[in-house]
Design brief:
globular; eight-stranded mixed β-sheet; five-stranded mixed β-sheet; 14 helices; single chain; alpha/beta
């Protein structure tokens, strides 16, 4: 069945649904913290929650209420990946649609929910190709970003440069940034939730306050017993107590200062140097200088150069400056996002012997490192 046929069917269903009685969305008085989040009229709001707190259902309720009041409008939900958007939000939307008999149409292939009045909610993953370009130029009264703790350094620019301009056509537009405390207590989402950055209205609650989760404390105690956690275990505090704490064990590269930090290289050893180059297609350029020797089992990060918003010529000059400073035996570059063309340009124009980074079996390589 073609997309046109599906759209025609959806239009017929919407016309029928408009004639049918749609139950009003009512909030459960036993869940006051979620209700405060759902009913907020602030243009910018944040929700920092533990696992199983009911954050996703709160977002879904906000979306449905906005869709009811904005016929033919487009609402946006953005998660870290397309698969996570589908697994986190899609079933919640279907459940609430059935509960309130909203008669919305669900087009799973494109992850679009259409209200009987023509309003749409579209789910995106930040891993989708050119998702930024798809959003630019559109207008929306309701935008939510989920899993904000995992978005990295480009979250702020995504909000400021791409999403916020989409709200300008609506006086009552809102944006919600949501997530669980991440393994590193830093970044834009951390600063919004803990330091009040950019005047977001802050909301925070845990699964203990979710009346739909049976005996949450008993469940948490079972986890504590199973995993042999103490009361200060970082995963317990982050995932279930909703607190920001440094969780080294949850990181891909597990840096511990007592083991990994050195101020100077060991002497009387001949060191060779490798440059690892990451071209900033969306983020900053980064060059890492690594030292190794046949006489030592250790590899050292001796210098890092991180620069925002510079052109290829400036990056090439940084590489050549490091080559004059260190005995560089190899330089490796991430070839994604146009890196192949840049690397070829560096080879031809500057004679830089750049080789492509091997990105297969990446996790195994990090574990070995």
């Amino acid at each position: 069945m073609s997309d046109k046929d599906l759209d025609d069917i959806a239009k017929i269903k919407r016309k029928r649904a408009l004639k049918a009685k749609i139950n009003p969305i009512t909030l459960d008085p036993s869940f006051p913290k979620q209700n405060a989040f759902v009913d907020s009229k602030a243009p910018f709001i944040s929700a920092q929650c533990s696992r199983r707190a009911g954050k996703s259902s709160g977002l879904a309720l906000r979306f449905f209420k906005t869709m009811e009041s904005h016929p033919k409008a487009l609402c946006i939900y953005l998660s870290l990946t397309f698969d996570s958007a589908k697994s986190i939000m899609w079933p919640v939307l279907q459940e609430l649609n059935d509960r309130y008999k909203l008669n919305c149409h669900f087009l799973e292939g494109k992850m679009i929910v259409t209200h009987p009045n023509g309003a749409k909610l579209r789910l995106y993953g930040a891993d989708q190709k050119n998702f930024n370009k798809r959003l630019k130029g559109q207008k929306s009264p309701a935008i939510a970003i989920d899993e904000c703790q995992d978005f990295g350094g480009h979250l702020e620019s995504l909000i400021d440069d791409v999403l916020t301009p989409m709200m300008s056509d609506y006086k009552d537009a809102w944006m919600a940034i949501c997530g669980t405390p991440g393994p590193i207590p830093k970044g834009y989402f951390f600063e919004v939730c803990t330091k009040g950055r950019d005047s977001y209205e802050l909301h925070s609650w845990t699964c203990v306050e979710n009346p739909y989760m049976p005996e949450p404390e008993a469940f948490i105690q079972k986890l504590i017993t199973k995993k042999k956690w103490d009361s200060n275990h970082p995963t317990l505090l982050r995932e279930w107590r909703n607190k920001w704490v440094l969780d080294v064990e949850a990181l891909w590269i597990r840096y511990k200062e007592s083991i990994n930090h050195f101020d100077n290289l060991p002497q009387k050893i001949k060191w060779n140097y490798i440059l690892g180059i990451d071209w900033g297609f969306r983020d900053a350029d980064a060059i890492a200088v690594l030292a190794y020797s046949d006489d030592s089992p250790n590899t050292y990060l001796v210098e890092e150069v991180i620069t925002n918003k510079q052109g290829p010529d400036a990056l090439a000059k940084q590489i050549m400056a490091l080559m004059s400073k260190y005995t560089v035996v190899k330089m490796v570059m991430d070839m994604g996002g146009g890196g192949v063309k840049m690397a070829e340009d560096f080879v031809q124009r500057y004679g830089l012997p750049i080789t492509p980074a091997k990105k297969t079996e990446k996790q195994a390589a990090v574990e070995l490192f």
